[in-house]
Amino acid sequence: MAVAAGPAPFTAADFRRRMARAAEQTSAAGLSGVLVAPGPDLVYFTGYLPVAITERLTLLAIQPGRPAVMITPSLERPDAERAPNAAAIELVDWTDGSDPFTVFAPLLDPDGTYAISDSAWALQVLGLQRALPRTGYVSMTEALPMLRAIKGPDELARLAAAGAAADACYEQIVQVPFAGRTENEVAADLAALLMEHGHSQVDFTVVGSGPNGANPHHEADDRTIEDGDMIVLDFGGLKDGYGSDTSRTVHVGPPTAEEQAVHDLVRRAQQAGFEAVRPGATCQDIDRACRKVIADAGYGECFLHRTGHGIGLTTHEPPYMVEGETRPLEPGMCFSIEPGVYLAGRFGVRIEDIVTVTQDGGRRLNSTSHELRIVR
Ligand code: ZN
Ligand code: ZN
Ligand code: ZN
């Protein structure tokens, strides 16, 4: 299948807006700046991902009132200069045999406290502490959890396209025969479909049939799917840099009354979570809305995980829809609502949509039917 041309690339203005917001949030949090390591954070601010993420130091510093500066190994400088946001960043390089931390240290506040990317290596944090013994470091997702959480319209368009692609995979996978094939074979079909529908990376292809579906962490194994099995399908990855993640539960042949009832229950819980989405509601409100439906039906003990997670440049990121997360929802946030019921040794059911917060509620980025689909 031909893959349509991707979306227009992010512009330097997009990246500058993100860096300005980081500087603002940094000041508001009383921090000296943000130190951004290679990975999704660096892609977010610069569009740059070093060819290979290695022990060689690459680090971007965004500090209020100072120009953004990135230290890069001299051999990678030509690549860094081609980054979409290179014009807005001062580049400083270092050569093998020199100490990059000594080069980088004068550019930072010697008494500062910095939020640093969760994906920074311990090697790098220790190097910074050695060069600047009075500095302090905190986790970026803990100190600035909302930094990447509120998506711009350009990001939402990508997330919607990734969701639509995952939905197209679902409509195709329910056409293939399940009974008599292994979970691994169906998972391989799902991975191939995701790539066919424009994904560049497959993050997970869960096929949890029969008792395997009762383990929320089960991915897929060599179990042969049988007539009468419930099957949890949960799959996603990255398309044009943004994540997809959806779950549906299907059944081989007609379900029992109990299987149908449990599925209906999870469906009602997912709907309740969705209806709770609006600006000002808290993340834990979404979790509570789903959990209440399931607990009221007597299955509270069988809902084994939080209700959801943020999604963006990665398939799992803040904010988390979990008890204790009292931050309010804001328009532009994007996260999963994925309640489940897991009956040990028997079967599981999970239904998951990605939802974005709008001015007056929520909008689903997955639109396949929530009905229990009968497969062969
Ligand atoms: Zn069954
Ligand atoms: Zn999922
Ligand atoms: Zn998920």
Describe, in short, the structure shown.
By secondary structure, the chain is α+β, with helices and mostly antiparallel strands. It has helices at 12-28, 40-46, 77-81, 100-104, 122-131, 140-143, 153-173, 183-196, 257-275, 283-296; strands spanning 33-36, 59-62, 69-73, 90-94, 113-116, 136-139, 199-209, 230-239, 242-243, 246-252, 308-310, 317-321, 334-337, 340-343, 347-350, 353-357, 362-364, 373-375. One zinc ion is lined by residues 245, 309, 336, 338, 352.
Helix-strand string:
HEHEEHEHEHEHHHEEEEHHEEEEEEEE
> Which architecture of the largest domain would the CATH scheme give at its second level?
Alpha-Beta Complex
- Structural category: alpha+beta
What value does the Rg take, in angstroms? Answer: 23 Å
Annotated CATH topology of the largest domain: Creatine Amidinohydrolase
Note the topology.
Blueprint: H1 12-28, E1 33-36, H2 40-46, E2 59-62, E3 69-73, H3 77-81, E4 90-94, H4 100-104, E5 113-116, H5 122-131, E6 136-139, H6 140-143, H7 153-173, H8 183-196, E7 199-209, E8 230-239, E9 242-243, E10 246-252, H9 257-275, H10 283-296, E11 308-310, E12 317-321, E13 334-337, E14 340-343, E15 347-350, E16 353-357, E17 362-364, E18 373-375
Parallel strand pairs: 1-5, 3-4, 5-6, 10-18
Antiparallel strand pairs: 1-2, 2-3, 7-8, 8-9, 8-10, 11-12, 13-16, 14-15, 16-17
The structure holds zinc ion (3 copies).
Structure description:
The chain has 376 residues and is of the alpha+beta class. It has two domains: 12-143, Creatinase/prolidase N-terminal domain (Creatine Amidinohydrolase, Chain A, domain 1, 3-Layer(aba) Sandwich); 153-375, Alpha-Beta Complex (Creatine Amidinohydrolase), CATH 3.90.230. 31% of the residues lie in helices and 23% in strands. Strands 4-3-2-1-5-6 form a six-stranded mixed β-sheet. Strands 7, 8, 9, 10 and 18 form a five-stranded mixed β-sheet that branches. A three-stranded antiparallel β-sheet has the order 13-16-17. Helix 3 links the parallel strand 3 (69-73) and strand 4 (90-94). Helix 7 (153-173) packs across helix 8 (183-196) and helix 9 packs antiparallel against helix 10 (283-296). One zinc ion (ZN) is lined by residues 228-230, 251, 255-256, 259.
